[in-house]
Amino acid sequence: MNSTKDTPFTFAVNVAQATLEQYDNHITRTLSSMKGQYLDAATYEAMLPEEDRLLYEVYEIRRPETAGELLHGLSVVHPGKVGSEYFMTKGHFHTVLETAEVYYCLKGQGCMVMETPEGDWAVEELRPGRVLYVPPRWAHRSVNTGADEDLVTFFVYPGHSGHDYGTIEQQGFRKLVVEENGQPKIVDNPRWRGPESR
Ligand code: F6R
Ligand code: ZN
Q1: What's the CATH code of the domain at 141?
Q2: Is residue 63 within 8 Å of 70, Cβ to Cβ?
Q3: How far is the CA of 139 from the centre of ligand 1 (A)?
Q4: What digits encode the pLDDT tens for the residues 123-177?
Q5: Is 5 contained in some domain?
Q6: Which of 34, 39, 66, 102 is found 20 to 30 A from 189 (Cα to Cα)?
């Protein structure tokens, strides 16, 4: 396990399959963990009893959660939609707001939806070979806009960042990504509950 290592180490990314040769922790998130996040609440409620679908998975290399460390691993968002809204991660601010993150896309098609507490927002495309730099202060959520392929990204962020999920759970993101006429489209979130809307 890497957590006990204080010497350099290497491991392989299987680029063709977009998998890691080794990892210490495997997190799975299903539909039931996304309550209140999808705009089409009626479709969400109807889907739940049918199957608690697996939406995304994270494979982590464990490192100490301290400032000098870099936490890293693989994020896999599966394809699918709730109504017209694509499968996505919960999304979060880092608890230490002034911490950034780098994502390298290995597989699939999608985007990162981002916003700051100051009211800025951005949506950047993720596709194989692209690197996304998420600056400090930007909340981030990955969205798989592909029809039948996983969206796989390798991520790296400072060890002391922490995760604030509560703010996004309460207020949502300003922007949503939905399918319209077979294409991804960025739309305003009518249920956004940030400070300016209250
Ligand atoms: C870590 C990070 C990613 C996400 C992963 C799952 O800071 O941004 O590793 O944790 O893509 O998304 P969340 O954490 O929003 O469920
Ligand atoms: Zn993050």
Answers
A1: 2.60.120.10
A2: yes
A3: 10
A4: 999 999 999 999 999 999 999 999 999 999 999 999 999 999 999 999 999 999 9
A5: no
A6: 102
